[in-house]
């Protein structure tokens, strides 16, 4: 999802006229639904192959495929489009206004890269046969931190302009995504 959000936001900044006139209205919802469906399918397949009917070879092949898809396709695309968006917004001679959505996307991508990617790469290398020292407990903590930071980011960005944080969570989310 972070990859598709980065691509869509980058395209809307780089090609705003094309996005307004040619982009299908429900494209975001359709792509999000397809990604959720793919995730559900892969997780169900992983549960069946790795837990219910354990097959070491099939489980390992599936996990390597998922890891390769994540880190050889999705993560590089997310980095490319996020960096392009960041450079376009920050280095623009038109002084484009950086909105809250831009801040949310950049912080989410940054924390994903810090907390989720390194450990996932180590786990992928472990499945490929390269042994590194890592602790599953540390992995769970990093995963929890990464997942827990997103609502905090949304809340803080949503209430950023006002010094006092007396807003409801709904208002903070509404302000974070008003762009």
- Which geometry do the CA atoms define? globular
Q: How many domains comprise the coordinates?
A: 2
Question: Sheet bearing the most strands, described?
Answer: none
Distance between the termini: 18 Å
- Structural class category: mainly alpha
User: How many distinct beta strands?
Assistant: 0
Portion in helices: over 70%
> Which regions are unreliable across 5 or more consecutive residues at pLDDT < 50?
none
Mean pLDDT across residues: 77
What does this structure look like?
There is one protein chain. The chain is built from eight helices and no strands. It has 179 residues and is mostly helical. The protein folds into two domains: 1-134, no CATH class; 135-178. Helix 1 (2-14) packs across helix 2 (16-22), helix 4 packs antiparallel against helix 6 (117-127) and helix 5 runs antiparallel to helix 7 (136-158). The chain is globular.
